[in-house]
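Design request, tokens follow.
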């Protein structure tokens, strides 16, 4: 099996699914999740990046969550490089920090409601205030910080279900947020749940986004590292190089096998 396999609109990078969609197709799918048939299991939208692919290698539960989500969008330059090398270019980098505000803008236009779960109390409450100012028609159904125990989960799910949000944003970091949604989505009364990582910190202004030129050239990771070196060094200096080496190694193996196969013909 190749490092990258294509099945219809999904690409599997080391067995981890990435839906290769452009922005409009991804938005259309989310709209269908929200406006489609009411009831049933909440839809799960995830953003896969090098970090989650490397984690999923040793975490079958995370692999299962990602591969069974309703929509898995491609986040980051690592996946773009892998796609290009294997001749399956990734259409668009759809990371949660840029994609989710587009969904919120739609929610604002359509008067949909949102519930925020995750981040520190001052972060999530400030984030709600900012959203309220920025999107006057967006209904903020409720919020809860992300520092809770297992025993508190029942009460949190009850609160979400009483408020029946159209959209649930879960910011607990990876892989906790992906696993939390996958475990609870059958119990949740929300049309769609997103795992959004540090989004609330960005919206609240507690963390700064990289300048646009850095985002456009695919080096936002440098900025993120400089912001919190102790938290991000492993991702930058261990995970990304390890991922790229695996990709290059697999590409070399594939090319060698192709040459041998041609030689035998
Ligand atoms: N977080 C949380 N509960 C926890 C651990 C983390 O709510 O037990 C929050 C944290 O405050 C931050 C977000 O999860 O707002 C993780 O952001 P990060 O950028 O680290 O996400 P990742 O890159 O892991 O997706």
């Amino acid at each position: 099996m190749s490092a990258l396999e294509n099945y219809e609109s999904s690409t599997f990078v080391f067995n981890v699914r990435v839906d290769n969609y452009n922005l409009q197709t991804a938005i259309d799918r989310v709209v269908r999740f929200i406006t489609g048939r009411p009831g049933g299991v909440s839809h799960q939208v995830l953003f896969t990046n090098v970090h989650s692919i490397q984690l999923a290698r040793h975490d079958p539960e995370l692999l299962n969550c990602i591969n069974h989500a309703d929509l898995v969008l491609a986040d980051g330059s690592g996946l773009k490089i892998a796609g290009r090398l294997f001749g399956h270019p990734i259409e668009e980098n759809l990371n949660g920090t840029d994609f989710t505000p587009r969904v919120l803008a739609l929610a604002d236009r359509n008067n949909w409601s949102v519930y925020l779960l995750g981040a520190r109390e001052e972060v999530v409450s400030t984030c709600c205030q900012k959203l309220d100012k920025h999107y006057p028609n967006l209904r903020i159904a409720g919020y809860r910080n992300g520092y809770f125990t297992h025993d508190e989960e029942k009460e949190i799910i009850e609160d979400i279900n009483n408020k029946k949000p159209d959209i649930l944003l879960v910011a607990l970091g990876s892989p906790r947020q992906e696993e939390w949604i996958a475990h609870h989505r059958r119990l949740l009364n929300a049309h769609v749940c997103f795992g959004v990582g540090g989004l609330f910190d960005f919206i609240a202004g507690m963390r700064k986004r990289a300048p646009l030129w850095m985002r456009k050239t695919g080096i936002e990771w440098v900025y993120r590292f400089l912001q919190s070196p102790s938290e991000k060094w492993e991702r930058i200096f261990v995970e990304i190089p390890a991922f790229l080496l695996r990709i290059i190694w697999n590409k070399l193996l594939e090319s060698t096998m192709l040459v041998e196969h041609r030689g035998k013909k």
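Comment from the thread starter after seeing the answer: thanks! The mean pLDDT is 92.
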